[in-house]
Amino acid sequence: MISRMNMPATVTADPLRLDVINPERRRLLLTAAMGLAAAATASLFPARPAPAAERDAIRPFSIDVPEQDLVDLRRRVLATRWPDRETVSDQSQGIRLTQLRELVRYWGTSYDWRKIEARVNALPQFMTTIDGVDIHFIHVRSRHPGALPVIITHGWPGSVFEQLKLIGPLTDPTAHGGRAEDAFDVVIPSMPGYGFSGKPTEPGWGVDRIARIWAELMTRLGYTRYVAQGGDWGSPVSSAMARQASAGLLGIHINLPATVPPEIARALSEGTPAPAGLSEQERAAFDALSMAAKKGDRSYLVMMGTRPQTIGYGLSDSPAGLAAWMLGHPGFATWSYRAGDPEKSFDEVLDDVTLYWLTNSATSSARLYWENGGQSVILAAAQKTAEISLPVAITVYPGEIYRAPETWARRAYRNLIYFNEADQGGHFAAWEQPGLFSREIRAAFKPLRHSN
Q: Of 83, 252, 285, 341, which has the highest C-beta tally within 10 A?
């Protein structure tokens, strides 16, 4: 990726003519010149505190993918070597050949990356270096005074593209059925190892570290009061921020909550029957999680959580392989990839997959699963929800991997201030139902707007 930004002008100076000066004067001038040079050097390369200030700088950023990268992608797509078709009539062996082949054919012949590039470049984008890694983020301030800042975190196999349709309704609510007092300043960062953010070169980049980096980002932006929202990986990141009680954080809203109680987790792990006494909703959640395990819906977790480097070789070399791997996520199970469904069209899907390809982030993004050490993001004990005292809001979507019962949510989060079950939307709810998702964020954070 190439970032366009203003570069400082080059400074030049005439050389000293020492060859016509007597030795004594030459010595004095040399001494003076050395002092001037030292001063100039100090201004160009400041003393030790200044590099930190330079690293803290927020730099404008825009996307400019070299054309040869797009040509190479198209060549690879059209040269895909296909496997034989699955031997079943469903997706129990993975994404079906006919479905993927149609998508990949469109990718190689009709898809236009420049459309999403232009759309994102129309938004204010920035880069800043935190903890040695470049962090890319979109930052849109509302025109309405008193807007509440919110940092929204994506997951895998998503990206900042998931949240693009939230920006209008959140920053300009009066144009989308809301009121001026519902406005937000929106910050949408690319997680480390994802998209245009830098790739960590050492272990230790789990959700706790990302949470601290997000807190630092909001501080750099000058926010002293803000809220956080997340789904998928964004949920444990936001929860970690709440657990750490990041300075200025008022509360969080999550849409993949860690509500599964210990006794339920134990039964699922051991493959034993559901514990006695479950309500109808609790039993439905147990059955959904049990069935997902039996169907292998979480098998991608095992591979990325144990051998992200191994799978990375294939995903970094084959665009079709990358698409198949990403679309194997259960969150995509009901997506049709049709132009008639603009929230789930070929272009919507390929924007996301192409981002992973062009940034070569299949391996670096998968390492977050390895960093998580096999801890499930939906288990209350694994995510240490009992340590969260800040206000928590939850929205449950019907197409989510599991529908968290309110009883489990209230056990897990002692300061649950909002809980709602939406009637539409799935795992990628912000992508699928941006209007509904925006209304949920407004409602969830309304009690916190005037809190300290």
A: 252
Reading the block at residue 261, the tokens are: 């109680």
CA distance 161 to 155: 11
| 226 in active site | no
Q: Is 427 a catalytic residue?
A: yes
**Burial of 283 per CB tally in 10 Å (0-12, 13-18, 19+):** middle
Q: Please name every residue paired with 418 in a beta bridge, in sequence order, or none if there are none.
A: 393
Report how far residue 451's alpha carbon sits from residue 248's, in angstroms, rounded to the nearest whole number.
Answer: 11
Decide: helix, strand or coil at residue 8: coil
Q: What is the DSSP letter of 400?
A: S
User: Which is catalytic among the residues 172, 185, 232, 351?
Assistant: 232
Cβ distance 61 to 135 under 8 Å?
Answer: no
232 is catalytic: yes
Q: Which of 334, 277, 265, 325 is nearest to 300 (CA)?
A: 325
Identify whether the C-beta of residue 398 lies closer than 8 Å to the C-beta of residue 426.
Answer: yes
**What ranges do the domains of the chain cover?**
67-260+373-448
Alpha helices in 79-220 (DSSP H): 97-109, 113-121, 167-171, 207-220
Q: Is the pLDDT at 14 greater than 80, yes or no?
A: no
Identify the weakest region by mean pLDDT among 76-85, 103-112, 331-340: 331-340
Give residue-wise pLDDT tens across range 23-55.
444 444 334 444 434 333 333 333 344 455 655
> Which H or E element spans position 186?
strand 184-189
Region 300-325 average pLDDT: 96
- The span from the CA of 31 to the CA of 14, in Å, is 17
Q: 134: left (phi > 0), else alpha (psi -120 to 50), else beta?
A: beta
Which position among 223, 356, 369, 397 bears the catalytic label? Answer: 369
Record the pTM.
0.87
CATH architecture of 67-260+373-448: 3-Layer(aba) Sandwich (3.40)
- What is the residue-wise DSSP string for 276-321? TT--HHHHHHHHHHHHHHHHTTTHHHHHHHH-HHHHHHHHTT-HHH
Residues in a beta bridge with 393: 253, 418
Query: 185 has which bridge partners?
Result: 149
Amino acid (1-letter code) at residue 343: E
